[in-house]
């Protein structure tokens, strides 16, 4: 067996999806392992005592490599610079990083994470029914934040500028989870919708669209490119 | 007037403090402007429609440059690589970024942010008294997370390895805010305490220790190096 990188992930975790997309887009061979972080398996915690996903390890040596979506993306950019997914100039790279920071630090926390926790993690852990107040707040945040994505997407070929970058992968990973859960709406968001259709039809997205989680079925639109 | 960078900050925001420390450590001339983001001043929102701190602008042209603590730190590393604050090898840089990601994505969100919101932002906005349940949860998280810091700090000269890095600045910025609010305790955390005393006594920390917020006084230990 050749030594490959193993991505420990949970299929509907958008941070893990960002990392999987990054590996695909950079053409780096890898395998994936599904981890339920709430099970707190000793073998998993031995590699990452913080218990967070995603992490990457080496399949042959089982050696821990790295944890954290942004950290892994920056690392991939350093060990495999081409195709470039951050940008070339310091200002261009800063714009990509700014959008990624907003996506993971605001959009994920205020929209995707609460919806995931209520609708997926609670179900899988048999922890009761979704809290409708939390879902309402997250959906309200979606309506507040999406116009910013639409504004950026309407002005540029890709979110970070003229080329595909981590900014696109980070945001598309978030939307793909909402898409699975049937939480996407596109009223008055034509720029965002066109941009998402473009990213969704990329080859790297294929594996995400084949994800299935036991007990939680994807929405009808999930695998459609023309939604 | 020479063109300098202006950091728009709120004095007790640990993300802003990280950026201020980074400018000091790299010896980059700068000025600071105190912004109360909840006032949503049109001039501020015109530069950063997301309304988040920190942002940096040019004093002469008033041109918006960048927002987001991690993004600004990575940008500074690109335009002013020395002194190095990320590390030299891809794996070394990944370790620093991993620690920064944990500090901002976990420690800040689960400990510092809720304490700041309840004890500072609510007061300054006349929004009532702190929610004791939120404070209790944040202080409980402090007790859960600090042993990890202690574990790392006990094994290395600096958090990221042998040299000062953004990992130290990011974490020390968090602790400095808790320090101001009298929320630091060091029971069974000797490694973390020694490490924090070392970072706190750096010249770059001086300006933070002079911060005062109207109506919210610093704790007795705040300016002590021997606490």
Task: Give a structural overview.
- The structure is a homodimer of 227-residue chains.
- The first copy, chain A, is an alpha+beta fold and 227 residues long.
- The first copy, chain A, has 2 domains: 5-79, Glutaredoxin (3-Layer(aba) Sandwich), CATH 3.40.30.10; 90-209, Glutathione S-transferase Yfyf (Class Pi), Chain A, domain 2 (Up-down Bundle).
- Chain A is built from 8 helices and 4 strands.
- Chain A has helices spanning 14-26, 42-47, 69-79, 90-124, 132-155, 166-180, 190-200, 206-209; strands at 5-9, 30-34, 55-58, 64-67.
- The first copy, chain A, has a 4-stranded mixed beta sheet with strand order 2-1-3-4.
- In chain A, helix 4 packs parallel to helix 6 and helix 5 (132-155) packs across helix 7 (190-200).
- Chain A is globular and about 50 Å long.
- The relative contact order of chain A is 0.14.
- Chain A binds chain B through residues 49-50, 52, 66-72, 74-75, 78-79, 90-91, 93-94, 97-98, 101-102, 104-106, 109, 148, and chain B through 49-50, 52, 66-72, 74-75, 78-79, 90-91, 93-94, 97-98, 101-102, 104-106, 109, 148.
